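Field: sequence (string)
Field: structure_tokens (string)

Example rows 1 and 2, in order.
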Amino acid sequence: MLPYAGEVLAMADASKSPERLLFFSDGVFAIVITLLVLELRPPHEATFAALIQLWPSGLAYAVSYLFLAIVWVNHHHVFRYSTEASRSLIWANFGHLFSVSLVPFTTAWIADSELAPVPVVLYAVVFAFINITYVMLCREAIDRQGVRKLSASERKVMRIRSMATLSTFVLAALVAVRLPMVAMVLICTCLAIYLRPSVSNRP
């Protein structure tokens, strides 16, 4: 009887672990990246000139792939702080994954339209949405159940970084109405801020 009770307790503890949620998230990221690459279409003519004409598709794919890689790295970093898959953490994670799943659609649109203003506006808005849901995920994983509390300086850096990136994405959406290429530059500049997920010198 006692071993059976111990197994039940072990299963209950395992169900609370964020590991399963992390595995599910990895699967979603893999699907999103697969959908992203499926949108790439080769030129109809077998010439370098025809290939160069597809530069909007190449640029959109490269930026989106880099963005998804950064989001994935930061997602894993955040989950290092979580101790259990609480209901609020699960829903915050689903919200974040929903925003990430919009990337292939917006990428295909700006590629097909050759960086037309409206698609680039939506592209920047989706990036802003991902930033907002990432902040919500951080609040659940770090602030409410973190295995260690962040220092005041680390929290300050996180707030400044979040506000800076969100403001840049919003600015890019506004600029894209007239200057979509400038908006893409702003988005790429903004991505560099999250290349390093940690806000401290600790790993």
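Row 2 begins here:
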Amino acid sequence: MNGVEVRTVAAPELGERVILAIDTSLGTSVAVGAGGQIAEVSSDDPRGHAEVIGDLIARAFAEIRIPAASITHVVAGMGPGPFTGLRVGIAAAHAFALGRGLSILPLVSHDAVALEHLETGAISGVRVVQDAKRRELFVTDYTGLDWTGTPERDAEPRLLPREGYECIVNEVWPARVPAAALVRLAARRLASGATFEADKALYLRLPDVMQPKAPKPVTP
């Protein structure tokens, strides 16, 4: 596939778990972790999530060299993100989990971005900023890592107008959400007994396509 990036990430926190993570909130990223390693396959195409998701999942399994039947946990990035793209990854994660008889482990997508920046130790806090289109931004603030190694949110994901937005020093505008970091976050939460997020997509606004209103009653 053209325009696809593949990388391998060390993940000692995996233990015996075999975890699949999918995120389509910003580009499309799939990762499979097993045996202390994670294979991540990503596409930065802002559209075409549905067209590439199946190939990316197959490529991730091929890179890590394990069968799909080995998966013990399935993680879904819940956004924030645009309605059309975000629902593709969540649906794919649900379909895979259903086929394996597993439950979904939902995570906030921005947590994965924050993890990769906070772990460097170069900054004490970080703000993740994502273009939400329609002259708006998705924004999440973090203070640092908690005792489990999970990013602590100072403010929950929110929608801000681009006009008048003031940049801060420690802000990050990611090109994609790293699914490998979602795998690592899930492994840490499972090991510590921490809870996961609600199984609800973080659209933060109504979708462009609205349900039709009920027809008006006909009066004589």
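free_text_note (row 2): The first strand starts at residue 4 and ends at 10.
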